Amino acid sequence: MNYEGTIIRPPNEANSLILQVTVGCSHNRCTFCPAYIEKKFRIKSIEEIFADIDTAAEALDDVRRIFLCDGDPLIMKQDDLVEILDYLSLKFPKLIRVGIYANAKSILRKSDDELRQLRDKKLSNVYMGLESGDQQTLDRVKKGVTIEKMIESAGRVRNAGMKLNVTVLLGLGGKERSAIHAKETINVLNRMQPNHIGALTLMIVPGTALYNSQSDGRFELPAKFELVNELKIMIEGSNLKNCLFFSNHASNYFPIKARLPRDKKNILAELKAVIASDDERILRDEFTRGL
Q: Are the C-beta atoms of residues 101 and 127 closer than 8 Å to each other?
């Protein structure tokens, strides 16, 4: 397999074969994201991709799950994606599902029929970074999209019969907009109705524009228990029909795993107790946190 640069994948794709079909991110302007800042975006050729598939197929005969990376493979031409998915099914007869990163722009470039065609070819899991439901926060971090466009794209994914996985970032609103960020984020998630929500905690990485903003005092990260409070606000305001909500990523100070709305009452009580304790020993140690 020919991987270029650092490879990023969602936590629940840990057991998937990772196939790199694009290098970098088609947007690559978000001020908080260090993942692709050293990569110039390009789409790999079909020949490169097929060569990697052949290499993997020679070594592995029981692949059931595949994840396509880097940042936004859905931006590829429809015919190329279809050709790749067909070849994956040919080479991996036991294949059940394929996952992919996507942003609102690439989703909305596809027609409803195109999205359903991809779903029929086992592209069933779409991972989308909402980050925040607060438009002011999104504009500040140069997400390059409106809330309404993200809600529209989420609906398109779900209507195509794909599973929608949405990521949000605790702390992205900074200390000043912490509560607003949390409230607006859960309001948007309620409209999106994803199948899965992953809440990560912002970690500011040297080399990013947000690191520079923090260094010169233009951005202040909320304190530990303020970050946990953002999580509480989201759970408290949730009106999700059938959704797995996780904050068990290594970046988080306090992990939760909930099926909402079923577990809402118990998780909310737990979060309130943690905040009321003001005991940092309950939280994840700083040295064990990571991206």
A: yes
